[in-house]
Structure formats: structure tokens, C-alpha cells
Design a protein that fits this description.
The complex is a heterodimer of chains A (611) and B (351). With 611 residues, chain A is of the alpha/beta class. Chain A has four domains: 193 residues, Pyruvate-ferredoxin oxidoreductase, PFOR, domain III (Pyruvate-ferredoxin Oxidoreductase, domain 3, 3-Layer(aba) Sandwich), CATH 3.40.920.10; 183 residues, Thiamin diphosphate (ThDP)-binding fold, Pyr/PP domains (Rossmann fold); 78 residues, no CATH class; 122 residues, 3-Layer(aba) Sandwich (Rossmann fold). Chain A is built from 21 helices and 23 strands. In chain A, strand 22, helix 19 and strand 23 form a beta-alpha-beta unit. The two termini of chain A are 33 Å apart. Chain B has 351 residues and is α/β, with parallel strands linked by helices. Chain B has one domain: Rossmann fold. Chain B is 30% helix and 19% strand. In chain B, the strands form three sheets. An eight-stranded mixed β-sheet of chain B has the order 2-1-3-4-8-7-13-9, sandwiched between helices. Chain B has a three-stranded antiparallel β-sheet with strand order 10-12-11. A two-stranded antiparallel sheet of chain B has the order 5-6. The radius of gyration of chain B is 21 Å and the shape is globular. Classes of the chains: A alpha/beta (611), B alpha/beta (351). Chains A and B meet through strand 9, helix 7, strand 11, helix 9 and helix 11 of A and strand 2, helix 3, helix 5, helix 10 and helix 11 of B. Strand 17 of chain A pairs parallel with strand 2 of chain B, so a sheet runs across the interface. The complex binds thiamine diphosphate, iron/sulfur cluster (SF4) and magnesium ion.
Amino acid sequence: MPIQSVNDFVVRFANVNGSGSASANQLFARSIMRMGVPVSPRNIFPSNIQGLPTWYEVRISEAGHMGARGGSDLLVAMNPETWGEDVADIEPGGYIFYDSSRPVPKSAFRDDLTILGMPLTEICLKHYTDPRQRQLFKNIIYVGALAALLDIDLAEIEKLIGEQFRGKDKLIAPNLQALRLGYDYAKANFACPIGVHLKRANAVGDLIFLEGNDAAGLGAVYGGATVCAWYPITPSTSLAESFMAYCKRLRVDKETGKNKFAIVQAEDELSSIGMVIGAAWNGARAFTATSGPGISLMQEFFGLAYFAEIPAVVFDVQRGGPSTGIPTRTQQSDILLAAYASHGDTKHILLLPEDPYECFEFAAQAFDLADRFQTPVFVMLDLDIGSNHRMCKPLKWDDSRQLDRGKVMTAEDLEAGKEFGRYLDVDGDGIPYRTYPGTHPKRGAYFTRGTTKDRYARYTELAAPYIDNMERLLKKFDTAKKYVPGPVLRKASRKTDLGVIYFGSTSASMHEALDMLEKDGVHVDALRVRAFPFSAEVSDFIAAHDRVFVIEQNRDGQLRTLLMVECGIDPAQLTSIPHYGGTPITARFIRKAMSDAVNKATGAGRKETIG
Amino acid sequence: MSFLPKPKFRHPAIETNDLGFTHRDYEGAISTLCAGCGHDSISAAIIKAVYELSLPPHRIAKLSGIGCSSKTPTYFLGASHGFNSVHGRMPSVLTGANLANRDLIYLGVSGDGDSASIGLGQFAHSIRRGVNMVYIVENNGVYGLTKGQFSATSDKGSKNKRGVVNNDAPIDMVSMAIELGATFVGRSFSGDKTQLVPLIKAAIEHRGAAFIDCISPCVAFNNHEGSTKSFDYVRAHNAALNALDFITPRAPISTEYEPGSTEVVRLHDGSSIRLHKIDANHNVHDRAEAMSAIHRHKAAGEIVTGLLYIDEDPQDLHTNLGTIARPLNELNAPELSPSQALLDKMNAALR
Ligand SMILES: Cc1ncc(C[n+]2csc(CCOP(=O)(O)OP(=O)(O)O)c2C)c(N)n1
Ligand code: SF4
Ligand SMILES: [Mg+2]
């Protein structure tokens, strides 16, 4: 029986990299969003090199589930090389759309599938002479065919094409033609629509659609960053590039044409973070964007910035490790690396955004926190939210918002005779005052070093001032708990002694899983942590539940370890549910893992939670 | 070792520069280096150069890596902000600082281990980016701080204190700097104040990447027979290419100089340096000639010193990046953060 589902299914495009499919696929996803039906697409790109396979998976969910679902209902098979695994991945009773220009033996299909063959190459050969056009329009033609098969409003696609080629109007007509070609062919040759299809809905509202890296780059602009030093690495590169693009648009002085920003592609990550630290030491807001291997290289510098108390904002768009690992797949496996980066006793502020909206918000906030606490701040994105388009709330900015530059003594302060001791805890919150170089001719100069010093920044190797300083750094870290984004609680519909803690990109699938579990009669209170250090609410939440699951996308349960160590939690109280194969975590996975764990642990004994 | 404050005592009639600062105003804490260390002489030369240029000390930022040489910023310009960073990474920290505020003068101090071994990459890339700075390598051909290991500038065949011979080819940082596009390259010797002070002054006035390789004997580990960076060795093998006499319009300084052919080199800010050519054929504007002079003298067992190459019209990193004239660290919310109105437009375009 072919799958029947309206506004709730997954389309998987199997493409060849470099074939120009990316923009056609995005056109497909956007047109669905324009019909008021939420979509969440995911790029799966084993390599960025031309000729290799890539996949684009679009989850369509009127209910608004943005997490990966797993499996596909309709395969758009444009890459013969991955045919076997792609076909195997289709859900029972699913559909396959393919290029039938060359015959495919019946044995290559499955009996349960609805087969939709269209001679795409043939059609292109007939209509176009230029090989590049043949390739590009083939993509648009299949989008047209899909529009017919899935009942997508053609007018929405046409409008999107018009917007996409605004200013390059010559390109509009041929694209519309290709679209029509596909649409008409499908209408004439298939029973349209098929069992999975769309219906206009009203579930998108004012949501916007962008990549987390893009949002973070824009957040850095709003957050007042002026210096960016970076070294290319997947999947963080597009964050620096986004910052660059927004700066060119928003930060060029109209009168002089000069830039109110400086972006340097460094020779490596050591140099990137060195530049960031140098710039921030000198009073500019500076950041770098990297991924795990870059964070590993920067370790020594993080210790310097922590100990010498220099702001630095670091975006870590996490990918699969260790080593080069699975570089084009997603993970949340740099948590401990970042939290305790560098030798000696160090701890760092981490921000854990769940979607592009928070990527923007936390990016801007990271600069305030870095300045306020004079320390590195890590914004922990991952590939799943960083380099995929995701729907999220529209971005917000308070025009009256000032940049919090933290405790900086000005020339006037110094002139007025205010006492300056670089590492003096004047306000009792552990945060000292600093001066920017060049502020005052006679006062406020000090020596910055990674070696031990007293409260007046004078070199010393004595134990007492060293310990005094280390204790103050702890106090400062404690103060940060009040400033970082607090956790978000989602209470179960009834009282329960089960809890779950999760963070970052797990969010979408977690919410869906909680809905499922609730239907299954498993009631779980859920807490999304959004930052490290953890505030008291986090340990209170754990204390209030008999058993707490920690869901995360790494092998070792890194957040769980951090919770145990930093909140002094008994390991028996925290059950790790790790997911680390490199594919984004799904609600199906979470539901099964949690149900299994609950059932195993309880037998018949805990009916109150199983319902 | 603890910080040693220097007793402040000022004679009423003490000499001041144009800004009214005394020599003492440019000093730092008392050095804790070995007595007689070449690095201390370089610190003294820096103090003298900045004093003579009448620069306000707080407008200079001094940055270094790790090593005996990198400790020296504590011992000069006490009224300047200083940054003792990590081993081999001064160039990146300095580059970042410079990006944040193009108005300060950046003085990078490093050692041969710091710059030719662990930091070779950062040295190279900061030079090729044309960071406006004075980059001084206090070159003793040895790791002083870690007690006498060979460094990458140790000459092939030179012996360490225990008699071990170095078999690896040395890195010549001066040739590298020229090759990498430094727009001011000089070499000097810590014991030659008459040459070093004007060279530093000229480097400070230069508005691009200025590199000075300063041979600086380590009395503890590299001042024995068999070392090619000892006082005696350098004195005996020094081939000064030119003596230079530095003149700024603000503070004309007349120095003695040897008669001979004179070339006036204009600097970017309108000041000029005069070169007294010992080798009348050396053209300081010619990279190839500078390279060949280095090699020629090296073949003859000589260390060529003086100003070897200068491009008087350098393009610095800020020029290349097209940054605004105002320091980036002065910009604030209204100029940096766009509005909600703009965000509304962007939101609309993202639907
Ligand atoms: C990452 C790192 N590795 C090693 C060291 C140890 N170390 C400190 S100074 C130094 C060598 C310094 O040599 P140089 O730059 O020539 O300075 P000098 O003491 O000779 O002036 C080394 C290896 C360090 N501080 N950091
Ligand atoms: S060990 Fe050598 S380089 Fe270090 S202070 Fe002593 S003399 Fe100078
Ligand atoms: Mg040395």
C-alpha cells in the first residue's frame, strides 16, 4: 500500500556534487514553506569535491517538527552511484522518482515502491544544446515535475524564481520554461498528485528560514565585532564568510568607502586566535570561527586568555571527531574540550544555541559576555544547525541596546585618580578593571602576561598571590552564572519523577520525542541547558527528579560529565543517551532509547511514569 | 624572582626631550637577565631611540613571545602597555592589536628560538601581511631561557658550551624578511649602539613591516670560543654596509658619521634617514642587491649589518584591508550595530 500522507513526509534528493542541484533543491524547500507548511532541509555532503555524492533531505511537517526524521518517503534518485543504499532507505510503500532516459532493470527497485520514471536527460537533450544548460535545467525540470506530483503551487515556485533572479531578468523566462516542461510532463504521464503531497496550510506564520552560521555571522555584526581572524574549516567557513558579506553590506563607511571592520584569513588557527586575543586586548570586539581541530590547536592561547583575562569570542561549529573524524557530519563532541580548554586549571563560558535564532542572539551576547568577564566565550554550534537552513523565529534587536564593554577604566577615571590595579577585585564580583593600551600618558599602563602576577599585574612566583588570583577567577566564573542564558524548562503534562536534559541542535527532535512519549504515557520534565557555567536551576532540576536522562550527540556523555563534575551529581542519577553516528539525532531514536531505558529500569514497578 | 621596583629619583636639572619626558620616563623595571646579556643593551637602545624620537611612551605597545629576549619589554618603556604572550606567537597577537588600533606604535620583541623555530610561521606571515610594526629579533643563536640548546639560527659548525657541534643549516631571518616582503630590513649588533639606535628610530618611523635582526650574545650559553654569536666573533666578522643617521623633522639629531657618499632616504611621514655607504654599490632600494650583499658577505665570513633594504612607500595591512582611519576600538554601538528596521527587512527576505 503506497504511503498516504498530507503535509507530513520526507523527500530525499540524491545528487551528484557540483551538478547545480543545490539551488533547485532549495527552491523546492522554499516553495513548500511559502505554502504555509514547515520544512527542514538537511545537506548531507560527504565531500565538497565535484562529482561525489550529496544528499538533500527535506522534512515536511505541518506539525512543525524540525528535527531529522530518518528514512525517506519519496526518493529523487539523481545519482546512479548511490542508488542501492538510497533505495534501501525508502520507507515501506514509498515512492521513487528517477531519470528513466537509460533503462533501469526492475531488480534495482523494490516491489513495494511506486516507481515514477521520467526521461529527464532525454528531455534536456531535446530542448537544450549547451551542456551547462542541460545540466542546470535538468534540476529545474525535476522541480517542476515534483510540483505536479506533490501538488505544490506552481505560482509560488514561479514567484521564488522571480525573486532569485531579480536584476538578472534574462534568466527568469528560461527557468520558468524549464519548470513548466517538468510540470506538464508529470501532469501528462503520472497520476498527480501521488499519495504523499501538500496542501496549503497556515503553520509557518512569521517564521524565517536561514542557516545557523549565517545567523551567527549577522549576530557578530549586531554584537559589534570589528575584527575577525579565521582559518577555513568545514563546517565553520560559512560563518566567517557570512560575517564578511554582512560587513560589506552594513559596515562600509558611506562617505569614505572605508571599512569599519578587519577580516584576516590567518595562516592557521593558532594565528587566528592570537589575532583575536591581540585585538580584544586592545579594545576591539574580535572573534574567530572554527571547528574541533581548530579548537585543539588553540589550546595554549585559551589558557593565556583565561589567565591574563582577555576577551575572545570563539564560534565552534562542531563536527564529528576525534582527529579529522567525520568532518562533514554533525556531533556535539567538543563540549569538554571547550569547557576546560588549555593546560592548568581553566574553565570557560559556553553558549549552546538550539537554532538560527539563538545563533544570532548568542553570537551578539557572546561579545558582551566576553567583555564583561574578560575571558574567552565559546558559542557551540554544530553542523546540523550551522550549515542547514532551519525555520526559526524572526530575528530581534533592541535599538536602544548598548554594547556592554565591561569594566574599562577611561582616561578620565585615571585622571581623577581612581585606583587602578589590573587584577584587583574592586566590586567583589571577581571581575577586575582593565585599561586599553594608550589610554593615559602616566597612569593605567600594565604588563599583560601568562605568568603569575599580583593584583597590580606585577610578576611574582609566590604562592599566596597566585592562589589569591586563582580564587578570584573562580569567583568571577561564579558571577557569570547570573549573566549567561538560563535553562529553559518544559514541564510534562503531569507530575513525574523523570527528567531529561538536552541542549543545542537536539532541541527539535527532543520536542517531537517528548510529544510522542507523552502520547505513549511516558511523562518527562525536560530542561534545555543553554550555557555553561550552569545556574542553580540546573542542579535543582536534577535534584527534583529521581532519574534524569542526558541526551547528547557524542559517545562519552560529555554534558553528563560536566553536570556531574560541576554540580556534584551522583553518576547513578544521570542516564546517558548518546547518539554519535554523525547523522542528526531523531525523535524516533530518542523515544525508543528513553522508552527502553524506562521499561528496563522499572519492569512493572513504575507505573506512574509509564501510565 | 619578584618584581623589582626601581627607586624613582629625579634630578631637577635633568635633561628632557621635546615632550618634557626624561630618559628615566622611558625606562622599565630593573632587568633580571644575566649581567652582560646582549638583550639588555638592546633594551637600552630602544629606550634611547624612543626618548630621542620624543614619543609619548603610552602610545607604544610592546609585545613579545617567550624567552629571555621576550622578557625584556618589562625592562624598557614602563609607561607603555606590554604583552608577554606565548612562545612563538607574538606576531599574531601584535597583528590583532594593530587591527584594533592603528594609531599606536607596535614594537614586537622576540628571540631566535621564538621567531625562527616555534614561531617561524607567524614571523613569516606577519611580515608578508605588511603589519605596521617594528619587529626585533634578539638573536643569540641559542635558547637562553631553557639553558643553551641550539636554535635555528645557530650557524652550522658552531659549538655549544659542552662542545657539541651544530650540523643543521641556519635560518637567516634577514634574507627571509626581504624575501617575504618586509619593507624595512636591517641587521645590527647589540654592542653597536651608534648603529642600532638610529636603525631602531628609522624602523619606528617606517609605516610598514620593519624587521631588525639584532645579534645579541648570550653570556651564559653563547659567548665562548666556537660560538659564532659571541662578542668577539661578531666584532671580528662584522661588515657594516652603511651607517645611518636618522633625522625626523620634529627633532633633528645630528650624529657623527663617517664621510663618504651620502644618500638621504625619505620616510613615509616626511622624516628621512641618511645612509653613509661604506659599500658605495649597495642600493638599499633593491631587494636583489640586498640579498646578494648578504650572500656575498656571508661567503666571505662576514655578517653584513646596517640597513639592508627599504621601501619608502610601504603598503601596510590596514591599507590592504581598506579600514577606516579611526581606530576600530573606538567604534561603538550606533556605528556598529544595525537597526531593528534593517532586521525586519532581512527577516522579510528570509521567508
Ligand atoms: C609551547 C612552549 N614550548 C616550549 C617552551 C619553553 N621555552 C621557553 S623560552 C624557549 C626558547 C627561547 O629561545 P629564544 O627565543 O631564542 O630566547 P632567548 O632566551 O634565547 O632570548 C623555550 C623553548 C615554552 N615556553 N612554550
Ligand atoms: S641566559 Fe643568555 S640570553 Fe638569557 S639572560 Fe642570560 S645571557 Fe641573556
Ligand atoms: Mg635565543
